[in-house]
Amino acid sequence: MEVTSSVYNGSSMMWFFRDRGFDDKSIQGMFRKCRRLEGVHQERASENWAYLRSIGIQERKLPSIVSKCPKILMLGLNEKIVPMVECLKTLGSKPNEVTSAIAKFPHLLSHSVEEKLCPLLAFFQAMGIPDKRLGKMILLNPRLISYSIETKLTEIVNFFASLGLDKDGMIGKIFVRNPFIMGYSIDKRLRPTSQFLKSIGLTELELQVVAVNFPEVLSRDVNKVLEPNYAYLKKCGFNDRQIVSLVVGFPPILIKSIQNSLEPKIKFLLDVMGRQIDEVIDYPCFFRHGLKREIEVRHRVLKKRNLNCSLSEMLECNKKKFFLKFGLLDGYALSNQVSSQS
């Protein structure tokens, strides 16, 4: 009788999925991923599906969400799903933040509010992360709820503490700025990148500045990204200390595309603007600005008026302030025209 019931439910769920546009290959994949799915009553699956639609998840996105986590259809609605959704709503400030988090990581709903979410919130609050930032962080990277506090998050905190970042809430600031950094392996990614930065001459304090201001650098592959960018800067003629100044002043210089960002900007700086490459040492954020929309446009305006200025004076302000600074408000329309033509 039990076997017959299981077979019946499996057949019932097969039709449930087919009615919602799943092909047989996807259905079989979900059954392999979650073997208990065959024993789920269609009524429960339908109820959970309808609830997910009711909280704002679009019908067209539901198949993708369910394919990632078929278990979502067998969870107790009022025991598991609703409490988690209601709790997540208190963390978000925008209507679609919770549904976006569920779409990114549907397994979020399979975790317990009391056993996983509350301890996670307490862990981050103890680090001095404000509640408003805390909610944004978890909804941006909902996978955080799946990490073990003892064996994953605490180790990450200890690693950053070993870099001298265990004061003034700096580790919390890193997590808020880049919640995804907690997902990387210490031994395979974070430690090699920090060691590389030290090897090119960054002091402990400079490494801390980079980690706090742009932690994404620590999450990039040394061999595939950091070393090639460093080699390119050396090829351009920068010495070791100058490269350190560039990295501290604008950390993304080590992860920006050479072909699509660094090379075209340096070529324009030298060949078109007629400037010396050393000028970017005084203003590393030169590489932050868009070539077409900012650097080229402002250079043309200044050249037309025969005006000279430093890179920082040229770029470290918005468009209106740029024209105010040089008394060129009449050129504001010209700039817009040049921008639209480029």
TrEMBL record:
Keywords: Transcription, Transcription regulation, Transcription termination, Transit peptide. Gene3D superfamilies: Transcription termination factor 3, mitochondrial. GO terms for molecular function: nucleic acid binding. It holds the Pfam family mTERF. GO terms for biological process: DNA-templated transcription termination. Belongs to the mTERF family. This is Transcription termination factor MTERF6, chloroplastic/mitochondrial.
